Amino acid sequence: MLTLIVIASSGCSRSPADANGTVNAASADSTLRVAMSDSTQWAVYGRDFSNERYSPLTQINTGNVAALAPAWVYHTGIVSGFETSPIVTGGVMYISTPLNHVVALDASTGAKKWEYTHDYKTTTDCCGPINRGVAVYGGRVYMGTADARLIALDAATGRKLWDVQVGDNEKGYHITSTPLAVDGKIITGISCGEQGGRCYVTAYDATTGKLIWRFYTIPSPADGGWWGKWRQTDDWGLSFNRDIAREKADSATYPDSWKRGGAPMWHIPLVDTKLGLVYLNVGNAAPDLDASERPGDNLYSDCIVAIDLKSGKFRWYFQEVSHDRWDYDLASPLVMFDAKDSTGATIPAIAQAGKTGFVYVVDRRNGKPIRRSDAFVPQENFMKSPTDSGIMIQPATLGGSDWSPPAYSPQTGYLYVDGNYIPMLYRLHHEELDQPAQYWGGAVLVPTAGSYGLFSAIDLATGRIAWQTRTDKPLISGAVATAGGLVFTGLTGQRLAAYDARSGAELWHYDTKAGVNAPPITYMVDGRQYVAVAAGGNLPLNSIRGDALLVFALPASRDTSAGAPRQ
Question: 134, 208, 268, 535: which could form a disulfide with 514 (CB 3.0–4.6 Å)?
Answer without folding.
Answer: 535
